[in-house]
Specification:
Elements: H1 2-11, E1 25-34, E2 37-51, E3 58-65, E4 68-75, E5 81-88
Antiparallel strand pairs: 1-2, 1-5, 2-3, 3-4
Length: 115
């Protein structure tokens, strides 16, 4: 029974992260373990989608790296995520912005939301 409680405690969603939506530009600090060393790598990009609910919630971040699109899917309550920062709020009209994959150059930009 102790193992079940431990897993449930680990799966509780971390509410310390800011709420973000598709179209937002965020930076995700990810812990990477190499051998016995641990370092933090920052992955900056646009949120393409939010998927799932509760403990199984995931989000996909896309960035352009030297002309090649790189997408990475993160579980929201992963122990490897150190921090999430919102850099820009984007203005999009869809929940899943897969169409951004086909766009190149200035067309691939997301309008910034005014506050």
């Amino acid at each position: 029974m102790d193992a079940i409680k431990y897993v449930q405690e680990q799966m509780i969603t971390k509410s310390e992260y800011p709420t973000f939506r598709p179209g937002d530009t965020i930076s995700v600090s990810v812990k990477i373990k190499e051998g016995d060393k641990e370092r933090i790598q920052i992955f900056k990009g646009n949120v393409i989608q939010l998927n799932g609910e509760g403990a199984t919630k995931t989000f996909t971040v896309r960035k352009m790296s030297s002309g090649v699109g790189v997408e990475r899917v993160f579980p929201l309550n992963s122990p490897f995520i150190d921090d999430i920062k919102i850099l820009k709020r984007g203005k999009v009209r869809r929940a899943k912005i897969y169409y951004i994959r086909k766009l190149v150059g200035k067309k691939a930009r997301i309008k910034e939301k005014r506050f």
